[in-house]
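quick one before i forget lol
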Amino acid sequence: MAVWRARRAGKLAWLAVLAPAFLSGCIPLIPQGAPVPPVPPTAPNAALVGTRPGPTPAGLGFSDTNARAALAAFVTSCPRLTRRTDASGLTRPEDWTPACAAAAGWPPEDARGFFSRYFETATVARGEALVTGYYEPEIAGVRVRQPGFDVPVYAMPPDLVRARPGDAPPQPDGSQPLGRYDETGRFAPYFDRTAIENGALAGRGLEIGWVADRAELFFLQVQGSGRLRAPDGTVVRLGFAGQNGYPYTGIGSVMRAQGLIGSGPNAKSGQYPGSMQGILRYIHEHPVEGSALMRQNQSFVFFRERTGPDTVGALGVPIAPRTTLAADPAFVPLGAPVWLQGDGGISGKNISGLWVAQDTGGAIKGPNRFDSFWGAGAEARTIAGGMRAQGQALILLPKGTLARLNGQ
């Protein structure tokens, strides 16, 4: 919400299509101010699937409030945007310099004028967007194990490493796979979710917290960050640290294929609602089947304790509710504004307006696939849990980008 940054992060980021939106989500975090490694280009990327000019920004009907929020997010993104390799193939760091130089001192009351002055729009591929949602969850948990809090939250294991060249085939993006070196020195896949839940990491001092509900921890892992709240009110803030190297399996998709959940809040008899809340209810009401279902997702997320004031996404800057999008950096330059038009699916929340691509996610792959961030708390959980919107997307690029790409 969601590439094991590594998106999200990444997004990491793991997120995916569970049901409508938990089906997605993730805020794999990296320390604010830390260098952001370039994401290796994947094939295809935006430059290969094709782009075409869209309408002028002035004709999109930006609202004042929305444009102000997007301008503020764009300003925070500029220090990364102007020096980060764009894996989409659409822009170069210097393309963003004029807009970023102007944005820092641009009057917020004329935010709509800023986007009209410095940007043009582009449709990537067909522009047909799928938008899910993510948020920052808070679940019952403590720092030190006590009765009722028996499920461990693990820090990144030191033996989880990337294979040395020649020890394992590279991945499609050219990077080496994650895993571990066994007692014989041979590289092997890391422990999967089942092995970890059965105690593969127990007794190694990796526990940074303990929670009461394994299913709630599962969804916190889907989101990639969150908070543990103890009975005495103390809070431990968790950020994404890493992942065990297995691909993400969206259990909502598995449940839908089995006919366990419907496609909306009014599921048929015997089905659960097609939302995060519906999936969680099924797991709680069917603990044996629910545990087996969660273990179909072999991917496992590790955390670190967060001490800074902000939630930070894959771009390395703070993310903002109803403004930040997780996107696939192979198709959208991280830091670029994005115009979406569509409704919120069963969440009922309209997604139309300006957003800024500041995060990534493990399940956020392909052109026009996005994960929208809604903040923290009960309302954010409800919106994100029911978000599965379809609509249209336009990428806002610095003026002159399309002409350069077309050799004009």
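fyi Residues 46 and 331 are 4 Å apart (CA to CA).
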